[in-house]
Amino acid sequence: MRISDFRSDTITKPTERMREAMRNAVVGDDVLGDDPTVKRLEEIAAKKVGKEAALFVPSGTMGNAIAVKVWTNEGEEVIVEEKAHIYNFESGHLAFISRVIPRPLPSKRGVYDLDLLRKAVNKRKDYHVPQPTLITLENTHNFWGGAVIPLEHFKEVRKIADERGLKVHLDGARIFNASIASGVPAHEYASCVDSIMFCLSKGLGAPIGSMLAGPREFIDKARHVRKMLGGGMRQVGVIAAAGIIALEEMVDRLKEDHRRAKILAEGLSKLPGIEINPDDVETNILFFKVRAMSAPELVNKLREHGVLALALSDEDVRMVTSKEVDDEDIHHALEVFEKILG
Ligand code: TLP
Question: Where do the domains of the chain lie, and which CATH numbers do they carry?
Answer without folding.
Answer: 16-249 (3.40.640.10), 253-341 (3.90.1150.10)
